[in-house]
Amino acid sequence: MVRWAKDRGLQVRMIGTMFLIALVYFIFIAVLAYIGIDSLLLLLIVTGMILLQYFFSDRMVLLSMGARVVTEQEEPRLYETLTRLCSIAGIPRPKLAIVNSAIPNAFATGRNAKNSVVAVTTGLRSTLNQEELEAVLAHELSHVKNRDVMVMTLASLISTAAFFIFRNSLSASRVTSGRGGKQNLWFIIPVFAAAVWVISYLLIKALSRYREFSADRGSAVLTGRPSQLASALMKISGMMDRVPKDDLRKVEGMNAFFIIPALSGSSIMALFATHPSVEQRIAALDRIEKELAGRGD
Amino acid sequence: MGIREALGALLGTTALPKANLDKLFAISSASVTMQSEFNLVPAPRAGICFKPIESSQYDEARTEIEELLQFSSRETGSSFRIVTDEYRFTWVILEDPDFDDLVGGIHLVSQTLIEKGFGDYLLCAIFRFEKGKPVYWVYHFKLGRFYPFIPLDGKTRDSAMEFRVRSLLEKDLPIEKEIAKWYPLWGIPL
User: Is this complex's ipTM strictly greater than 0.85?
Assistant: First the structure.
């Protein structure tokens, strides 16, 4: 079983984010209690929903993505790769599913390793070579090993509750009132719930990005070849296609276009992204590669 | 976009961006990082590529460049040649075992071309490194930034490796962010 090589900076940021999420949730529940809302019932309902989602999400996700679980006989090669990676990672082998889609993609689902399914699209298989495919499978297995479905479900629990409170308080602000709470504070509930939802939403997205970096690192450790995942990411993201093929001397005649500054700067969008940018992930993988090379000597 | 460019665009009097040499010397310090960290070894050759100059001006310009190069090569001990490629673009290729002298030479030649009024003709300067295969750093004069170019056989390029050298050298070199501007130059004569 492989012990994950640790990235201290990443772990500090991840723990910090989780702490902030917990803090926001704590404040939320404390304020609700102070105002006099019976948040216990609401939390029970939301928890029930989340638990349902937690136990059935794998099937829901597979169904919604149109993924078909395949047997070992159907996909001997992929299963063989999966088995090898799982034995290195020290986790039971998840099932494998294929999604019939030309878009290259992969995902992992399931609450624990035993119930997990790793799915790849047919597009992924035709786009990547064997080594890159292995790196992507290792990335998904790292999600399974890190129990990311559970972590993210827990993290979004109260965020979902806040969202429901926000919606309900807009439509039926006074129906549930009248049990001797602080009536004059009722008007702030929608605003407060919305604020909690927005803040926790951003924090959850940040946490998700850190989990991606973690899974990338896991893939690098499992395969020992971070560059394969980097090259897979480039192919999947279509980055390769943006590199021009026309000669500079040929396009020089149109060089007036160079004046128009390209709209760069996706800093705001980056806040909402569940995944870090491909550039950032490749840079991180290159650092891991240097680490691995340094230790191997 | 600055106010002047915006105004120029509005009035339709947009001028071409001027050749910019500010960041050229960054390749000097970057070459140290490339060698020590990534075993990218600089080749003792570098070139400047510029657009064909109309015939009446060309002879004069060429003589001037040659005189200048003869003078400066006596100073630094580097050698040079001038070639015309299949696109009819002119290349000044310098050779010098010392990389800093090479960069200095490239700067000097481009500076002189700008001073003589040929700045608009300057296309790019190219520095060659080796790591099994040639790894080129293209300095685009009008962008004032570098980008990597790693050609493979038959007009294809190793984009995966280009992205990797980009991420490795981001801190040392001003690299063009817009990948769509990383135009290749097939058949570089150095």
Answer: no
